[in-house]
Amino acid sequence: LRDRFEPVEMDHLVVDNSGTEAATERRVAEVF
What range does the domain containing 6 cover? Predict the structure, then answer.
């Protein structure tokens, strides 16, 4: 699960780059 989750989170952070925690939490919720 970590192998799948870590790259997704990293891609999201790089693409977003806004630092919006809400968007990150939303992405995490979608992954799980």
Answer: 2-31
